[in-house]
Every structure is written in C-alpha cells, then in structure tokens.
Amino acid sequence: MSFQSSLISPIQLQESLGQNANIILLDCTIDKVGQSIKEAKLEILPHSQFFDIEGKLSDPNSKLPHTLVSPEVFEREMQRLGINQDSILVLYDRWGIYSSPRAWWMLKVMGFKQVFILNGGVPAWKNNKFPLVEEYKTTVKPGNFKAQFQENLYADKEYILTHYRDTKVNIFDARSKGRFSGLVAEPRKGLHGGHIPHSRNLPFEELLDGIVYKPIDELKRQFDHFNKTGNEYIFSCGSGITASILAFACHLVGHGQIRVYDGSWSEWGREELNLPIEK
Q1: CATH of the domain at 141
Q2: pLDDT at residue 210, as a whole number
Q3: 81 in a structural domain
Q4: Distance (Å, whole) CA 153 – CA 74
Q5: Residues classed as catalytic
Q6: pLDDT (tens digit, 9 = 90+) per residue, 99-149?
Q7: pLDDT per position as a tens digit, 247-263
Q8: How far apart are CA 8 and CA 91, in angstroms?
Q9: Is residue 34 domain-shared with residue 137, that is, in the same domain?
Q10: Total domains in the fold of the chain
C-alpha cells in the first residue's frame, strides 16, 4: 500500500493507520522566525516520533541555520527512528504546512522514496476530531535505512554562481516581496537586502490556503504565471525552510528537476561574501 499523491489528507491517513505496519509518523515542527511554538501544549498524532530539523539534523559546524548534515549522520539518525528502506513516512508539523516540506526535501535528497506530507498537519487532523496525544513514541527497533545522496536535488553557492545566468534554470525565492526587493530588513544580522539576480519572487504564503496547500490547479497557475524559460527549478528563501514549501508544490504539479538552495539568503546575502545581488 502506498498513497497516490505525495500530499495526503487526514482522512486518507486515518484510514491507512493500522492497515500497514510500515507507516511511520514524524512530527517535523520547528519555530517560525519571530514565532515560537515551544511553550505551547504538545499535541501530536499517536505513535509519532520527532524529526529534529533544528537539532540533530542540522550541521552543528555550519555558520548557517538548518544546513544539511552529512549522509552518514542522517543515516544514523533515521535508523535511530526505526526507519527502514521499505518504511512509508508521513510527515507533518504543528503549524499546518511550514517545516514538513523541508523534511520531505531532506529525505528525498538523502535518497528515501516513500515520503508523504499530511496536508494541514496537526490543525487539520484536529479539525477532523481525530485523536491526539502529548508524548512521542520513544521505544523503537533500529532501522536499516541507507542514505544515498541525490546531488540532482541539491544546490549550493557554487551551483548558483554557475547557473544563475542560465536561461534554462528558473530560480524562485520564497521570501516576502519586501525582503526580496530589499525594502524590508532581513531578520538575521549581517545580511544584505535584495535577491539573487534573475530570480523570481513567489512568497510561500501564496501557495497556501491557511493551513493547507492550495488545490493543484491553483498551484500550477502560480508557477505558470511566470515567464519560465527552462525545465530546472531552484528554490531559495531565508534558510532553506520555506523554499521547500515551493519545491514540494513544484513537485506536486509535475515538475521533476527540482533543487533547494541549502544555504539560501543566509549564505548568499552575507555581507562579507560580496556575491551578485539585485534589488
């Protein structure tokens, strides 16, 4: 059993739970910039585990937030969560749709196949009056997941420098219009305002209808609105989180050549790097 779409509804998930022992639920919640959920009451789906984006799954030696750990570290942490090669992973977050697409991209770039996102996360699950618990599942049998890094899904600074002028590459920036234009200051210190030259601005909120993704046809119209010149899509934002909201939407509408710029503006905008910037 698997789901027909990478984006599943609470009803689809509820109907599948108990029917397939390979389903693993992962809470992928992180705080938003300027908004914290850490003090809120923990409400999660039963039998969930925590996919620790900001802690165990971010490189502690990087000066940048949220950057990927090595495949070796990622593999070890996934095995600790009991994830096997044939597991079916369902990702969600407590905001609705925010950080679960980042976890989706991380798993895909590390070679995992069966990974899905719960549309609307905990709020949508709660709206359906499905059960919630206040504790994570803690005892699991170690899994056999093997990481296989997929370079075709990843972009770093060097890749952007090589391709940002390429007419076959479409670069989308998920930040607000104010930050994209440099009219609003960056929330992180030491960063220029503006954007990568030749990139387009598609604020991530425009792909969402509250806590859920907009319908597929609307997502397609959002991308079709731009004068796209090639089949490759690179997504950037402040630190690689909301870029993944765009990347997942691009995947949903059928585009295959998708990369996320892991460093995003936290790297490109650094004052000391003096990289090409437009405003």
Answers
A1: 3.40.250.10
A2: 97
A3: yes
A4: 16
A5: 237
A6: 999 999 999 999 999 999 999 999 999 999 999 999 999 889 999 999 999
A7: 999 999 999 899 999 99
A8: 10
A9: yes
A10: 2
